[in-house]
Design goal:
Blueprint lengths: L2 H9 L5 H15 L4 E5 L2 E6 L2 E8 L4 E4 L5 H4 L8 E3 L2 E4 L7 H17 L1
Helix pairs in contact: 2-4
């Protein structure tokens, strides 16, 4: 895994997707600066203790935050109200980064899951 893989992924995107996901990447790294960066399942991912704790992806009409667990987003149903998605992907607009407090909560829940295993 390497940060350069994520750099390459982002360089392949058009604006505003690239800028929005760069900001999300910075937010994730501010929250978990020791996270390993790389690609998992062909998408940018951040690992802690060998487990993916956060990831993201760009699609045609939206961006997705990926906690790499189907039980993170349902635990934060109040906080993610207003966003689209599935139980394992939080969809957000291509030009609007996720708020840092929400990203912190998503990562906190995922880290708690990992530590409980």
């Amino acid at each position: 895994m390497s940060a350069e893989e994520i750099d390459a992924y982002l360089e392949g995107l058009d604006e505003p997707k690239r800028g929005t996901l760069r900001q999300l990447r910075e937010t994730i790294l501010e929250i978990v600066p020791e996270a390993e960066q790389g690609i998992s399942y062909s998408l940018p991912a951040f690992r802690m203790q060998g487990k993916v704790v956060a990831g993201f992806a760009a699609f045609k009409d939206h961006l997705s935050y990926l906690p790499h667990s189907g039980s993170v987003i349902p635990q934060l149903s109040d906080e993610v109200a207003g966003y689209g998605g599935t139980k394992s992907a939080l969809h957000f607009p291509v030009d609007t980064p996720l708020p840092r407090p929400l990203v912190e909560k998503l990562i906190t829940v995922r880290l708690r899951q990992i530590s409980e295993r």
